[in-house]
């Protein structure tokens, strides 16, 4: 009976499957993590280590996760896991934002569908429905986040609608009340007519909008400029509905102005021949076009500064608008568009408001919450700017018609421009003056404190510092009130006589205690006297019914999460969100913490970009380019999505498409195959087989050098949160250093050498170290696959996530050896290229069929002294010749000094290792194998047939 030599080859053996089957494997592993309380075990193991806290910015509990959620949470998880692997106690507590308009809006939609009016429902019942809605989606999102592989204290998250959280938010507001920073004032705020509430800048998005434009005459009634005494001041605006709120006209003191006299008009022109109009000379052509003026002449010119003391009349003078309209200098007046004069309505714009304060103008309340003029507004009471669906209503056209009627309109048109819209309803917003609660940026030096805190914070990328700094430096006072029902109420009592808020810590303490016990609903269900106690009479006070802006909620989370939880610390090491949160969570958290604690609640801020489709477009249902994370997970697995996150440069906008994800599936397969090869070839490996470092061959010592250098990279990139760079290094190590080079070379020794072979033992010694380091390095990213591989080697009860990164010896570093092997790898590339060409031409079947002649310069030859080039090049033999290659030799332009002349190997092919050698057939018993294989077979106790 002859020996089946192929069965004597020591092939890899492992239970780690080639096909990952991630959609089925990952849920099983999640269940195992839960059953063994892996998160709790990790906390116990690392309890005495330095703590690292990434404070979770709360997502909104109102729908399934989108790809942006996945990016954000995966990145947080990779950071937390890597910090744990660096030897920290990296606690992660997830959280949710549960109050606010988006949830309230959903409940109102349900009411409208049933023909039900929200105002007819008791507020406690309405708030209960909002709470239940938020809880439903919180539970759904929690499972979706866990499916991504995100590890954290999911059984004990923080939730802004928890009773104690609501109490803490109210307590934080009380600190601003007590230090005098909180005040009530009437200012123009961005207002959603659809949602009937003020909006923060973070709730605004800008989109194209077509506005009606008008040129309007304001008759001059008093001036020292002679040419103006029988002229009109001309303004231009894109918001005709604001004309009733006009209280002044602004000009630029340094701007040149002229008076033109109309000499000729076209048909249907509202201009009158002989009338005189004041405007900026560079805008005459635009005005004439709008007003159908076909002829004019300049009759006077003057500087803006000459207008001081000039008074105009409102266009509707004599019909309820019988006040003077002063001309006032303002530095925001430009000559880019319009007329050089700015219609100023202090109730309808921030610049206008500031001008109104500066000059003591009336700042009237003109528009109600539903976007209609108040009953006291002459001529236009009840007219609506936008309807309940955000569509333009009748206010603009009514005002324009009235301007035509009184002879004030010179021209009208349309302008498509970028305009603020509510990001929820997508409807355009208006500026509306209404009583609101504000936190002063100056009263207690909040702005200066916040700017210093920004200077003291680390920003990744650094550009985030300037962005947040400019926002804080230029922002107005913080409007924290909203006219809604679902939120933490503004827990303030206002004295009806003095209009001053009550500042009494004992009252605030009673509110806090009540909220801890019953939640913020107590504000609406308790009798006010219970809060006020015996020292005050409830009849003397107005109880504020506005609720807090949800940004104040999330901005306060550091207080009731970081400070109050025993498993966390304040301040956080890191806040991480999308770049839009410079005006959102980073911003509100900074202001809240600086206003109450004098510093930021974070030491570092990291921002990531937005997710776009493969063509760089925003994701949109109408474009059909939306990719849901669940679709990827169900088809390919969460580890593929996690790989996409770290392989992208997430500091900028990221792109995703099915083609991109498919490419990452291929990358994943290469990484998995590396792990599988290592596992398979380490089967049965024990410490007894290890070879000491100083006894290792050069090639193995080069691998250890690469491990040591890679360890430096991994630790640095993890500390810098630069996982994109980490991934590139790890991928190249697996694909280029290991699979395409080292493992490719050592495959022969692993499969065909005798088990006791020093070379085989050396290879397994190094592979053991490679596996142990590599699987730990990959664990923060490929959290499922790394743990699966770890358990495949070390047992089902052991998890890689309870480990730390290996301590890799600096003694392994050998830059001279690395430089030497870089030369060898270059030479090998030329040999490999030549043999690939031979294979393509079918002159050889495999590289072991060849015994090429390799011509090289002396430095290459010197590098290969005492090394087996045939083994390195995976050929059966090789002849290394010092000198220039002959004509026709294979060369690579980028590897000068090396040429290869292919040739066939002499001898017979070994049946076991497939090398072609003259010695095959020379062994007395094993006639079809080489001498190396014969010795190996003998050592394995396999005798040849007689």
Fold and architecture overview:
Strands 7, 8, 9, 10, 11, 12, 13, 14, 15 and 16 form a 10-stranded mixed β-sheet that branches. This protein has a 5-stranded parallel β-sheet with strand order 2-1-24-25-18, with helices on both faces. Strands 6-5-17-19 form a 4-stranded antiparallel β-sheet. It has 28 helices and 33 strands. Among the domains are: 5-17 and 655-813, Isoleucyl-tRNA Synthetase, Domain 1; 211-417, Valyl/Leucyl/Isoleucyl-tRNA synthetase, editing domain (Isoleucyl-tRNA Synthetase, domain 2), CATH 3.90.740.10; 837-906, Class I aminoacyl-tRNA synthetases (RS) (hypothetical protein PF0899 fold, 2-Layer Sandwich). The longest helix is centred in the last third of the chain and has 30 residues, at 723-752. Helix 19 (638-647) crosses helix 20 (658-681). Helices cover 39% and strands 18% of the residues. It is α/β, with parallel strands linked by helices and 946 residues long. It starts with 21 loop residues before the first helix and ends in a 7-residue tail after the last helix. Strand 5 (182-192) and strand 6 form a beta hairpin.
List strands and helices in order, with pairings.
Elements: H1 22-35, H2 38-45, E1 51-55, H3 67-85, E2 89-91, E3 95-96, H4 101-113, H5 123-147, E4 158-159, H6 163-178, E5 182-192, E6 197-198, E7 204-222, E8 232-237, E9 248-251, E10 256-265, E11 276-279, H7 284-291, E12 293-303, E13 311-313, E14 324-329, E15 342-344, H8 350-359, H9 395-405, E16 409-422, E17 430-439, H10 446-455, E18 458-460, H11 463-474, E19 478-479, E20 481-482, E21 493-495, H12 505-518, H13 522-525, H14 528-532, E22 541-543, E23 547-548, H15 550-555, H16 557-562, E24 574-578, H17 585-597, E25 604-608, E26 611-613, H18 629-635, H19 638-647, E27 654-656, H20 658-681, H21 698-719, H22 723-752, H23 758-778, H24 783-794, H25 815-840, E28 853-856, H26 858-863, H27 869-873, E29 879-882, E30 890-892, E31 895-901, E32 908-909, E33 916-917, H28 931-939
Parallel strand pairs: 1-2, 1-24, 3-4, 8-11, 9-14, 18-25, 24-25, 26-27, 28-29
Antiparallel strand pairs: 5-6, 5-17, 7-8, 7-13, 7-16, 9-15, 10-11, 10-12, 13-14, 17-19, 20-23, 21-22, 28-31, 30-31, 32-33
């Amino acid at each position: 009976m002859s020996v089946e030599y192929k069965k004597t080859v020591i092939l890899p053996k492992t239970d780690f499957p080639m096909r990952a089957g991630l959609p089925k494997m990952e849920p099983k592993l999640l269940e195992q993590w839960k059953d063994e309380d892996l998160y709790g075990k990790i906390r116990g193991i690392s309890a005495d280590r330095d703590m690292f806290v990434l404070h979770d910015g709360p997502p909104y509990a109102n729908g399934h996760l989108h790809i942006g959620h996945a990016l954000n949470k995966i990145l947080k998880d990779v950071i937390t896991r890597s910090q744990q692997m660096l030897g920290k106690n990296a606690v992660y507590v997830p959280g949710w934002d549960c109050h606010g308009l988006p949830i309230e809006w959903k409940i109102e939609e349900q009411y409208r569908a049933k023909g039900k009016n929200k105002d007819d429902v008791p507020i406690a019942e309405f708030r209960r429905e909002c709470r239940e809605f938020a809880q439903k989606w919180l539970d759904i999102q929690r499972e979706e986040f866990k499916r991504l592989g995100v590890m954290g204290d999911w059984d004990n998250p923080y939730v802004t609608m928890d009773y104690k959280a609501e109490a803490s938010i109210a307590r934080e507001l009380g600190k601003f009340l007590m230090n005098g920073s909180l005040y009530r004032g009437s200012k123009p705020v961005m207002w959603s007519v659809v949602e009937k509430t003020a909006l923060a800048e973070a709730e605004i998005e800008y989109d194209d909008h077509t506005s009606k434009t008008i040129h309007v005459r304001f008759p001059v009634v008093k001036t020292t400029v002679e040419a103006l005494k029988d002229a009109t001041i001309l303004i231009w605006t894109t918001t005709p509905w604001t004309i009733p709120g006009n209280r002044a006209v602004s000009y630029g003191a340094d701007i040149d102005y002229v008076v033109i006299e109309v000499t000729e008009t076209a048909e249907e022109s509202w201009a009158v021949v002989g009338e005189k109009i004041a405007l900026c000379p560079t805008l005459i052509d635009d005005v004439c076009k709008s007003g159908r003026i076909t002829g004019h002449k300049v009759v006077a010119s003057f500087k803006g500064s000459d207008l001081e003391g000039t008074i105009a009349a409102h266009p509707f003078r004599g019909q309820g608008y019988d006040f003077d309209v002063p001309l006032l200098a303002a530095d925001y007046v430009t000559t880019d568009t319009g007329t050089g004069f700015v219609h100023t309505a202090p109730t309808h714009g921030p610049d206008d408001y500031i001008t109104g304060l500066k000059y003591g103008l009336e700042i009237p309340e003109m528009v109600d919450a539903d976007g209609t003029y108040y009953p006291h507004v002459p001529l236009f009471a009840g007219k609506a700017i936008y309807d309940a669906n955000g569509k333009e209503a009748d206010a603009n056209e009514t005002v324009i018609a009235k301007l035509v009627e009184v002879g004030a309109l010179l021209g009208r048109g349309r302008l498509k421009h970028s305009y603020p819209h509510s990001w929820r309803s997508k409807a355009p917003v208006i500026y509306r003056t209404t009583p609101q609660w504000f936190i002063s940026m100056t009263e207690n030096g909040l702005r200066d404190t916040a700017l210093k805190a920004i200077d003291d914070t680390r920003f990744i990328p650094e550009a985030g510092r300037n962005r947040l700094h400019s926002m804080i430096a230029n922002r107005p006072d913080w409007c924290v009130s909203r006219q809604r029902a679902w939120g933490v109420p503004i827990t303030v009592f206002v004295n009806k006589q003095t209009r001053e808020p009550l500042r009494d810590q004992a009252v605030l303490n009673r509110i806090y205690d009540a909220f801890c016990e019953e939640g913020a609903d107590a504000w609406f269900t308790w009798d006010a006297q219970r809060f006020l106690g015996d020292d005050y009479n409830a009849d003397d006070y107005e109880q504020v019914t506005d609720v807090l802006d949800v940004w104040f909620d999330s901005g306060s989370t550091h207080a009731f999460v970081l400070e109050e939880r025993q498993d966390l610390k304040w301040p956080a090491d890191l806040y991480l969100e999308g770049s839009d949160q410079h005006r959102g969570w980073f911003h509100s958290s900074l202001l809240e913490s600086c206003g109450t604690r004098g510093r930021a609640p974070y030491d570092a801020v990291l921002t990531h970009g937005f997710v776009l489709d493969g063509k760089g477009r925003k994701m949109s249902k109408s474009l059909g380019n939306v990719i849901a994370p669940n679709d990827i997970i169900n088809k390919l697995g969460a580890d593929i999505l996690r790989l996409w996150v770290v392989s992208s440069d997430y500091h900028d906008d990221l792109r995703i498409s099915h083609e991109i994800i498919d490419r990452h599936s291929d990358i994943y397969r290469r990484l998995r195959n590396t792990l599988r090869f290592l596992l398979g070839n380490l089967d049965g490996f024990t410490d007894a087989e290890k070879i000491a470092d100083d006894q290792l061959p050069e090639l193995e010592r080069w691998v250890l050098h690469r491990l040591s250098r890679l360890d430096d990279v991994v630790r640095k990139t993890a500390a810098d949160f630069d996982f994109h760079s980490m991934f590139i290094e790890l991928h190249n190590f697996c694909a280029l250093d290991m699979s395409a080079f080292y493992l490719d070379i050592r495959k022969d020794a692993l499969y065909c050498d005798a088990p006791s072979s020093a070379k085989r033992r050396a290879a397994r010694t190094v592979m053991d170290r490679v596996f142990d380091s590599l699987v730990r390095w990959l664990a923060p990213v490929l959290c499922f696959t790394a743990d699966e591989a770890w358990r495949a080697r070390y047992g089902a009860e052991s998890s890689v996530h309870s480990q730390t990164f290996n301590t890799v010896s600096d003694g392994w570093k050998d830059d001279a050896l690395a430089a030497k092997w870089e030369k060898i790898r270059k030479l090998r590339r030329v040999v490999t290229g030549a043999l690939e060409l031979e294979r393509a031409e079918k002159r050889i079947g495999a590289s072991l069929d060849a015994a090429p002649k390799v011509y090289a310069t002396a430095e290459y030859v010197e590098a290969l002294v005492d090394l087996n080039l045939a083994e390195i090049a995976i050929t059966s033999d090789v002849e290394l010749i010092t000198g220039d290659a002959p004509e026709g030799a294979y060369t690579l332009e980028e590897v000068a000094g090396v040429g290869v002349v292919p040739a066939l190997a002499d001898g017979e092919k070994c049946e076991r290792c497939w090398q072609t050698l003259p010695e095959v057939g020379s062994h007395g018993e094993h006639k079809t194998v080489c001498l190396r294989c014969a010795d190996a077979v003998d050592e394995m106790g396999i005798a040849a047939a007689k």
